[in-house]
Amino acid sequence: MIEEISRDEVLVGCREILGLSDVDNAIVDEDLLTALVRRSAGIHCPCSRTVLRSSLVDALQHLCDARTLPDRIEAIIEGLIVVGDLLELHDVGIVDPNVRGTWVFAAPPSYVERQSGDIFIIGIVADQDVFLPGSLASRVSMTGLTRLIQPESNEDLAKKLNDQGLQKLSEKTWLRSPSAEPFSQLLARFERRLAERPPAGTVNGMEVLDGKRPVTFYRGRWSDCNGKTGLFVGRRPQEFGTPIWCLVELTAGNVARFLDLPSNKSRWRGCDEAWHLQMAIDARHGQPQRYRVQPDDGDCRFDFFSPLPAWSERRFVAFGRTVPPMKCLMSYVLPTSAAKFEEKFLQECLWLSRTEESE
Amino acid sequence: MPGSLNEWQAHLEQHFEALAKHRAESGFGIFALEHGLDEAALKEIAVLLRLQLKNNLLLRQHWLLWIIYSTEHGYQYEGDEYWPSFESQTPGWDGRMRYQLAEWFKKFQRTYSGVVPTGRWAEHFRIISRPITHAILPKYLQVQFCRTLYDLRHSLIGLGANAQDTGDIGRRLARDAGHTSTRFQEFLQQEELTGRIVLALLGEQSIGGTEPIYPQTLERIVGDLERVRNAGEWLRETRRYVEDRFTGVAAGLPGRDGANPPGAPVPKYMHRFDVKAKVYLSHRGGGNWIVWAELPSFKGVASLCADTRSFLKTTRCRLNGASDFKPGGWLLSGSRKGVLKRWPNPRKPMVQFEHPHERIENLLQTGCRIARGPIWLYRIGQDSTAREIVGRTVRPGGRYIIITNEEQEQLRYGMCQLEISCADIWAYRFDVPTDVSAELTEWLVEFGLQVARTIHVWPAGLPGRGWNGEGQSEWLTTETPVFGMAHDHPVDGYVLQLDGEFEKEIEAGQCGSPVFVRLSRLPEGKHILTVKARRGAGLDEVVSTPAAEGHVELCVREPEPWIPDVASHCGLIASLDPHDADLEVLWRNEVNLSVIGPPSRSVTAHIRLTDRRGAELLSKRVGGHFELPLRSETWREKFSQILRQEKNAWVYLEAASGELEISAEELGRISFRFEHDIPPLRWILNRNQNNIVARLVDDTGIEESEPEVSYFNMMAPAMERRNSPDAALAGHAVEMPGGLLHARQGDFEDFVAVSCKCILSDFKDLKIDSDFSQLRSRSVLSANDLRLYARWHNARLYGPLINDRWKKIRDEYLSIIYEKLCGLNWAKAEASFHKSPDLLQALETLLQLVEKGSTGFSSKLLRECEQSNGCVRHKSGWYEELAKKYRVCEDAGLSEFAFSLAMDAHQVPEKFGSNLGNLVDAVRENPAVLRGARFFRMCSNTDTKVLKAVRLDF
User: Fold this and answer.
1) Which residues numbered 32-51 in B keep a CB inside 8 Å of some CB on A?
2) What is the torsion angle, in degrees rounded to the nearest 10, for the CA atoms of residue B851, residue B854, residue B856 and residue B860?
3) Which residues of B touch A6 (CB under 8 A)?
4) Rounded distance between C-alpha atoms, residue B610 and residue B654, angstroms
5) Model confidence over B311-328: pLDDT tens digits?
6) Judging by DSSP bridges, how do beta strands B416-420 and B288-294 pair with one another?
7) Which of A95, B189, B547, B863 is 20 to 30 A away from residue B248, measured at CA?
8) Which pLDDT score is estimated for B780?
9) β-pair type (A110-113, A167-169)
10) Residues 550..579 of B with a Cβ closer than 8 Å to A: which?
């Protein structure tokens, strides 16, 4: 009934229960973390990102390096939001319709059929790590954070998944993004909304993305407001929960006005709107954010130096695959056939500029 | 091989005798489908039986063959009408012979210990329930049965090892099967039977030496399942999952048929259900906190018996501390959270039902109350939600909220008051310093709190469900709980005990070094893991305090099945009121649908109607994209457009079920299923060009009398015309422009309002001017008038324009009832209230008319309505007290009747039954009690601002 087990046995037991292929590997790698985040989401969602993270930090204490663990979990949560397993929704009530906030939800089981016929499996179910019957579950391949299943010859896989109760999502819906527009138009719209806001009182602890710092080092761009004037993307702390993204007007280091993000009735997350706005601000300053394209074994590797909004990052997950970043923030490999179209998307929707430099 | 009917009869008698003997010990009844005959033999017997019937020969001597024949028909049954297809395949069959068939089934039961149909469906469909039950798993239920097994495959493993009998398995199926048809749910009520089928289908070869179903019959059913789309795969997958782990179930035990008598005290086994509520505090922003409660699923309680299941499904409940009622079935739904406006009274259960239920009340009294005060300790989590620490133990460095039921005058050690949206309590924030001084410890002890010892235990590896950091956790029966343990002071080892047994000693290692322990899979219920530190002898000599000891509570439950298209925590909450509406209620546009979700998203709604065979008759999008939140008024307005379309009205005539799907792209979809309730006595309607043909179906099995049939034409809705039952059973065209068809047989009744297509020369022909002169001219209103009104109100609706016409008749009828009972002046004032743009003046007139010469009673009603924000439907008891206090009515029963009549007149005949006539007479003598209730009702529909403006000083 009760037995003492070693640290390695704890991890092997976890891998076994979660149905991971490499069962004897007694390490906390990304595959195990991803499966654990999905399981935790099945237990806790709807909840905040902090709850997801802290539940795993607690469970994995003394089992892996505690210093890097929170950041690794956070990256996986973000990744699962990008692929659609998790939905981060704002202005939604979960206990009382009148008490609304931003919460992470587990997406219901769904699938997206790609033009190639391959199918992405999306969604998380409480109490069940695998929600497909064994005959289908055994065919699911994990590539990073995505779960893919390929049809067999003459197989109507979509129909089988429908019959299992999975919801079909069209690729168009899944890859929905804001319409392309000039950066000036986006900024003008938000500046109008910002102007309608009342003057801000004292706002302590606000940090902003400094437009004067190099666009190729995202973490280094965060600074305090001291002495700054103009339009900035910022984050202001709150007593409980993660800092709130906002668009800020600064006058000599003081916050004149701020607009919390996401704006009213926006379907995008606060960070997605903020990063999109920062791209527009950088473009207006004549310092557009950069991406780099390099050949990669017959394909193209795209390197990015700043975060992409989830709706654009999802395209790279859909059409390509994630690879470890090389001297940048994140990298993806796309087939050459898709690369040209995606470059156009980056330039038109995100106003990014291609660089050949090795930063 | 037998050749004649006599030989077949003899062969089958031998077969069933042998089978009965073999089964004698097991307690398993015998099904007629267990005949062991192949397809060719069945065909041959059918041909011979038909020939015998054609030649008018005696049927009795081959009674067993007729049972097999009718059971085979039951196996092919599609859920609609049994007899028409039976008769068409059996030329010469006389409808009256069905009673003889029922007797032969009784003989089969007596002779061979045959299965006896049970449950509500069997009681209502006395004859056809026999061949259909003896068909074991009729084809039309096979897909749903396999899907249910597949959905519940995780629970079935645990159940296999722990079930007391086959009834346990059947009860689990009945409890957890979601999203299935009404008929299937009725089928699941036969818990013993379904438990047996589960065991047989999942490969349980024998139980106590007896197979649950005759092997050849089982092979046939499985073969048929394999041929049905998906069913085969679901069955294979479920079998694969439970393989080798599904043994040890005892056969049915006498008396455990799942039908515990209602009102009995809580059985001991009922205490294993976790009904403990959790109360949380959440920061809502701006320094303000709210209090909310979460209840566990009551599915376990519902599985006890049909009585508790039905009670939980239909009875509204309210959280202790909340003002709003939750709909029936809420405790069985996916999300059971609610905000508390007042701190719960610890003496009362966290859930209070609208009506009492002794056994559930007893359970709630013992297991569903919050801890007694006067203080409650909460630890603030990183998610700005505070969870209760039942042991009232604080840890150095922790952030806490202390709830008290008395205001604290002296706040020390940095304690500060918090703003909390909950009455009757005070909340204080208290951050415990990392270094807890002796003085602070003493103060905390005085306050009723303790400072924790530091042996840290936590769920290791897999994240813990419901882990509050202080020893409470939740696990699944499929999991092996793993805990880590570490200490920060010298400890030699730990002594662990599970549920007071299975003691295990392990070495503790150095300070800060963890050890891990794994428990084996645990059965459903509550378990306690006790961890006791063992100190070295040297340390024991110098330390006077006892060694640290703690408990981890493990609540173990079955995994919840994933049911596609059912509302879950996907950010989209759709609710229906009434939650169990059938297709008739949907088609009367009386379903309140509301959808809550992120306002940045929209949803689409699709309605689909299908016939008995599942063929799609209608698939329509309702409205366009609905912005969130979708309110019920918007929904009903859009849905009324679907109802007004004539072709949809015709399609509805053939519909057997409907599905409403709410879809919000990646947020998911939720679908609701609506079905026609199929009563044993029912009108069937068919279109014949522009006519509607009505035919009465009588499946009650009542032999002694003929049904009574009557018709009320729309042009004279209160005038009854008796019709011939034979004509009704044969079918006849409904008279223009339509009306109310009514039939009664014994305790069974059915009524349908039908509208026929009119050849219109003008739009004004759409309007029906009903003649109520007969009702108006009556000097005294009778109980029968109320009964007829209830029939019109509750009727199923069919045909073009029916909704508009029916509504007009219903409203006019009701206004005459109130006029007759409350007086002409009152009726005029009510009409003015409904039509007048000046609501204020109309209300002031009504206020003065409730009681002659006094407005005290009516003023009180108005103010109560204002304070309750219009939620007055549950205030019947309050109204009775008030009427007594103001001497409007001393008789509480009469006040209750008046309240019901004012709120829901159509429910009054059923609610007050045989006393209705007396109560109607009494109200006529004391109209003020009804006028007061009507006034209350009208105030509840009025904006609070208008209510506030009403003058009371007349």
Assistant:
1) none
2) 30
3) 516
4) 8
5) 888 788 889 998 888 877
6) parallel
7) B189
8) 87
9) parallel
10) 559-560, 562-565, 568-571
Q: Could you tell me what percent of chain B has a pLDDT over 70?
A: 89
DSSP A253-310: TEEEEEEESSPTT-SS-HHHHHHHHHHHHHHHTT---EEEEEEETTEEEEEESSPPPH
Can you read off the two tokens belonging to residue B246?
Answer: 């599904």
Residue of chain A nearest B240, judged by CA positions: A134
* Residue B322 contacts A where some CB pair is shorter than 8 Å: no
Mean pLDDT of A95-109: 78
pLDDT of residue B267: 44
B496 contacts A126? CB cut-off 8 A: no
Nearest to B382 among A46, A51, A127 (CB): A51
> Does residue B837 have a cis peptide bond before it, meaning omega lies within 30 degrees of 0?
no
Contacts for B255 with CB less than 8 Å, ≥ 6 apart: none
Single-letter code of the amino acid located at B113: S
pTM summary value = 0.70
* Measured distance CA(B613)–CA(B77) in Å, rounded: 11
Q: Do A92 and B480 touch (CB under 8 A)?
A: no
Kindly give the interhelix angle for B63-76 and B97-112, rounded to the nearest 10 degrees: 100
Strands of the A290-296 sheet, one edge to the other: A321-323, A330-334, A299-304, A290-296, A353-355
**Residues of chain B found within 8 Å of residue A103, distances taken between Cβ atoms:** 571
pLDDT surpasses 50 at B261: no
Beta bridge partners of B710: B722, B742
Contact B312, B579 (CB under 8 A): no
- pLDDT value of position B265: 42
Inter-chain residue contact A128 with B154, CB threshold 8 Å: yes
Hey, CA dihedral for A157, A159, A163, A164, is it positive or negative?
positive
Q: Of the ranges A7-16, B499-508, B667-676, which is most confident?
A: A7-16
Q: Chain A residues with CB inside 8 Å of B290's CB?
A: 95-96, 99
Tens digits of residue pLDDT in A197-230:
999 888 888 999 998 899 999 999 999 999 999 9
Q: CA B809, CA B154: separation in Å to the nearest integer?
A: 53
Q: Do the chains contact at B461 and A166, CB–CB below 8 Å?
A: no
- Cβ pair B427, B402 in contact under 8 A: yes
The CA distance from B871 to the nearest CA of chain A, in Å, is 18
Q: Which residues of A touch B559 (CB under 8 A)?
A: 127-128
Distance from the Cα of A209 to chain B's closest Cα (Å) equals 26
Query: How many other C-beta atoms lie within 10 A of the C-beta of residue B726?
Result: 11
Given an 8 Å threshold on Cβ–Cβ distance, is B598 in contact with A51? no
The CA radius of gyration of chain B, in Å to the nearest whole number, is 33
Residues of chain A with C-beta less than 8 angstroms from the C-beta of B512: none
- Which positions ≥6 away from A122 have C-beta within 8 Å? A83, A84, A85, A107, A109, A110, A111, A112, A147, A169, B666
Paired tokens of B508: 């503790």
The span from the CA of B805 to the CA of B756, in Å, is 11
A320: CB partners within 8 A, 6+ apart? A299, A302, A332, A333, A334, A335, A338
Nearest CA in chain A to B475: A127
| Nearest chain B Cα distance for residue A354, angstroms | 33
Please answer yes or no on whether A59 and B458 come within 8 Å at the CB atom. yes
Of B322, B361, B369, the C-alpha closest to B343 is B322
Query: What angle separates helix B927-940 from helix B802-822, to the nearest 10 degrees?
Result: 140
Top residue of A1, A86, A156 to mutate, by most chain B CBs within 10 Å, is A1
> What CA–CA distance (Å, rounded) separates A91 from A253?
30
Q: Does residue B772 contact residue B812 with C-beta atoms inside 8 Å?
A: yes
User: Do the chains contact at A51 and B596, CB–CB below 8 Å?
Assistant: no
